[in-house]
Design brief:
The complex is a heterodimer of chains A (about 325) and B (about 400). Chain A is an alpha/beta fold and about 325 residues long. Chain A has two domains: about 200 residues, D-Maltodextrin-Binding Protein, domain 2; about 100 residues, 3-Layer(aba) Sandwich (D-Maltodextrin-Binding Protein, domain 2), CATH 3.40.190. Chain A is about 40% helix and about 15% strand. In chain A, the strands form five sheets. Chain A has a five-stranded mixed sheet with strand order 10-9-11-8-12, sandwiched between helices. Chain B is α+β, with helices and mostly antiparallel strands and about 400 residues long. In chain B, strand 1 and strand 2 form a beta hairpin. Chain B has three domains: about 35 residues; about 250 residues, Orthogonal Bundle (MetI-like fold); about 60 residues. Classes of the chains: A alpha/beta (about 325), B alpha+beta (about 400). Chains A and B meet through helix 1, helix 4, helix 5, helix 6 and strand 10 of A and helix 1, helix 10 and helix 11 of B. The complex binds glutathione. Glutathione binds next to helix 6, helix 7, strand 11 and strand 13 of chain A. Glutathione (GSH) binds next to helix 6, helix 7, strand 11 and strand 13 of chain A.
Chain lengths: ~325, ~400
């Protein structure tokens, strides 16, 4: 019962500490390690290879923060968390940062003692069905059974959508995405519903990916982003700007290949980001080369996207909403100045 | 321990108040109580103020807000527009359901397997030994997964269900069978059923008394069955069968109508039954072995039939050993039922500590309520089993 113990730990931590702890930055530096909560295995977002190395779009946020704070993207201790475990893990201080396809919602932002540092993937909920059902639209799903992961916004959107359209369904809820996938494959449910990006990730994990298809409907807004505990503004800023640095680097045309050149002889904006001009790093309590380290070691957002979920990956997700704002998407970093 | 064994406390006439051991004990208790109270008060008030400082919501107000999610199975009406308070109830009832079924079946399996150990038949005895040794030593979680993923998930798809006479269906989504729907006048049949049960109880009492007085035996069992079937059947005929059956039917996606038993419930019940049954079998074996062989021999010597020796002489004495063990097995079963969460059976742990906690973030309140529930359930079991224990205890000479 790992979960119960972390809840009790959270309770005790909150109950016994006499002052709310700030100073995550110091803790991380002292430890020399960033503790980062990721999903327990989701292709393209956070997955572990045979050698135990983690990769993915969400993992890259952890790496970026480690690069900015510790100067080394590999100094991360990954904690795989299910949807149900993630918030208690953050509240109890088990992880410094949660980067696990977590939707930014009003309730989570206002009542869990957490802060969303931004959005690193704009998503929406969709449906995956077996092709042999012959279903072409979600509106044909009246009476279906749906496999859902517990403790997600998915559960709530599903109820809303079916109610709004006067349809009925049976909710078959599982703890992990593996179990949810197995439920779908064994025929326990007709449809698997989740954020669309995760549907693509789960689909390529099926025994026969071509037997299933994703329906066209997108029924919700799912802005996914990194989360930190409330009450440590300095740490919040570091996480938020590490993520922005990924996005801003792409916007400014800085990537892992040209970063050294840009640092030395780039335009003013590029130099400011990379620490040759201004004091952006110092203002965050970090070294001047914080963003240089991010781009050098992790790449910019575009590189990370293509490598993990885009055309350079088995998922082949188009940039869509997640393109820069001047490229038809809504990705937008405030200026570094 | 009765009072007589305790040293008598003589009232102290002279001497101080504090020299009185009884007063002193009271004072120590009071100090301890106060200390404990202070300890918990500090923890709770610290937790509350720290939670507020960190922006974590607290309080029980969430129990009255809309939950917004659906639950796979509910014994009461429930929909996403109901409150978190209702999700608590739904989860609680599902926990109670699986616990009661589990305890009932595990007891039957356990007793059969426990007695089978003493069978003169080599095969039956082996079966009992293998059963106990296998299932007691495999972690319960693995057994839950085994039934769910290896056995039940291998059943055919909804669209090729195994059907029995087009009225009972079995597939990967569960077991579906017709539901009996009451019509006007059905109360009469239920009344007849109740009357039959009362009649049987009276009959048993009467037969016992008669046997005590005259030594004559009466075929209670057969008569009871006769009454139990006969009386309601008669009512059914007289009232012109005030029931109809609602058959499950295949619809586009699912099988609808009738009663369905979801595979999560089946898997969990099977796992709990088989696992706890193995422990109960051990308890029964220990109980039977605790009855001195002399008892059996004495029973034989007064000419009791072999079959009655077990039920009249051995088992009643074995119960003194078995019942306290059963008590703890039943309590474990209830606690083990939280493994439901591994396969998504919507018990209290899954629904409340799982989903509701995650959607509201109110960990402390929810965990506290859930712990209280398991505590109360287990105290109730303990209370009931102690009553049973009293009734099987050796009648002491007064
Ligand atoms: N974005 C949604 C859903 C996130 C989620 O947990 N999705 C599942 C998809 S099935 C997942 O990623 N599971 C991976 C895991 O449990 O490790 C939320 O924040 O509630």
């Amino acid at each position: 019962m790992l979960k119960l113990s972390s809840i009790i730990a959270a309770g005790l931590a909150v109950g016994l500490s006499f002052s709310a702890t700030a100073g995550t930055l110091e803790d991380v530096k002292k430890r020399g390690m960033l503790s980062c909560g990721v999903s327990s295995g989701l292709a393209g977002f956070s997955q572990k290879d045979e050698k135990g190395a983690w990769s993915g779009l969400d993992v890259d946020v952890c790496r970026a923060v480690a690069a900015a704070v510790l100067g080394d993207e590999s100094k991360v201790q990954y904690k795989p968390l299910t949807a149900k475990e993630r918030f208690t893990a953050l509240q109890s201080g088990e992880v410094d940062l949660l980067s696990r396809n977590t939707t930014w919602t009003h309730t989570r932002d206002t009542s869990l003692g957490l802060n969303f540092a931004g959005v690193n993937y704009y998503d929406g909920q969709g449906f995956m069905v077996s092709k042999k059902l012959g279903v072409k639209s979600a509106m044909e799903l009246d009476g279906a059974s749906a496999c859902i992961q517990a403790g997600t916004t998915t559960e709530l959107n599903m109820a809303d959508y079916f109610r709004a359209n006067g349809m009925k369904y049976t909710a078959v809820t599982f703890d992990t995405s593996d179990l949810t996938r197995q439920g779908f494959e064994s025929g326990r449910c007709d449809v698997l519903t989740s954020d669309q990006s995760q549907l693509y990730a789960i689909r390529i994990g099926l025994k026969d990916p071509s037997s299933a298809m994703v329906l066209p409907e997108v029924i919700s807004k799912e802005p996914l982003g990194p989360v930190v505990s409330q009450g440590d503004d300095a740490w919040f800023n570091i996480v938020r700007w590490s993520m922005f640095a990924l996005i801003e680097a792409e916007f400014l045309g800085v990537n892992s290949a040209n970063v050294d050149k840009m640092k030395a002889e780039g335009k003013p904006g590029q130099k400011r980001l990379l620490g040759t001009e201004g004091d952006a790093g110092e203002k965050l309590g970090l070294s001047a080369d914080w963003a240089y380290n991010i781009v050098k070691q992790v790449g910019n957002y575009g590189e990370s996207f293509e490598r993990n979920v885009g055309m350079g990956s088995p998922l082949k997700i188009a940039r869509g909403l997640n393109a820069q704002w001047n490229q038809g998407g809504i990705l937008y970093s405030p200026p570094v100045r | 321990m009765s009072k007589e064994h305790m040293p008598e406390v003589r009232p102290v006439k002279s001497g101080s108040f504090f020299n009185n051991p009884r007063n002193r004990a009271l004072i120590y208790q009071a100090i301890l109580l106060f200390g404990l109270g202070f300890f918990f008060y500090t923890i709770v008030s610290n937790a509350l103020s720290n939670m507020e400082a960190r922006g974590i919501k607290s309080g029980f107000g969430f129990l009255f807000t809309t939950s917004g999610f659906d639950i796979l199975m509910s014994l009461v009406d429930y929909s996403a527009t109901d409150t978190y308070g209702r999700t608590f109830l739904v989860g609680l009832l599902n926990t109670i359901l699986v616990s009661i079924i589990g305890i009932f079946l595990a007891t039957i399996v356990g007793f059969l397997m426990g007695v089978a150990y003493f069978s003169p038949n080599w095969l039956i005895k082996r079966l009992s030994i293998v059963y106990v040794e296998t299932f007691r030593n495999i972690p319960l979680l693995l057994q839950v997964f085994f039934w769910y993923f290896a056995v039940l998930a291998a059943l055919p798809d909804v669209r090729d269900s195994i059907s029995f006479g087009e009225s009972v269906f079995l597939n990967v989504r569960g077991l579906f069978f017709p539901e009996i729907i009451d019509e006007a006048g059905s109360g009469f049949v239920y009344a007849a059923l109740a009357a039959a049960i009362v009649a049987i109880i009276v009959l048993r009492k009467w037969a016992h008394k008669r046997q005590d007085e005259t030594g004559d035996q009466f075929p209670v069992f057969l008569t009871s069955i006769g009454i139990l079937i006969g009386l309601p059947l008669l009512a059914l005929i007289v009232s012109g069968n005030p029931f109809h059956l609602e058959y499950p039917e295949a619809s586009r996606f699912n099988i609808r109508g009738g009663i369905s038993v979801i595979p999560e419930l089946m898997a969990l019940t099977l796992a709990l039954t088989v696992y706890t049954g193995a422990f109960i079998a051990e308890a029964v074996r220990a109980g039977v072995q605790s009855v001195p062989h002399g008892q059996t021999e004495a029973a034989r010597s007064i000419g009791l039939k072999e079959s009655r020796i077990m039920s009249l002489i051995v088992v009643p004495q074995a119960m003194r050993v078995i019942v306290p063990l059963l008590n703890s097995e039943y309590q474990s079963l209830v606690k083990n039922s939280t493994l439901a969460t591994a396969i998504g059976y919507p018990d209290l742990f899954t629904v409340f500590v799982g989903t509701s906690l995650n959607q509201t973030g109110q960990a402390i309140e929810i965990v506290f309520m859930t712990m209280a529930v398991y505590f109360v359930i287990n105290m109730t079991i303990s209370f009931l089993m102690n009553r049973v224990n009293d009734s099987v205890a050796l009648a002491e000479r007064k």
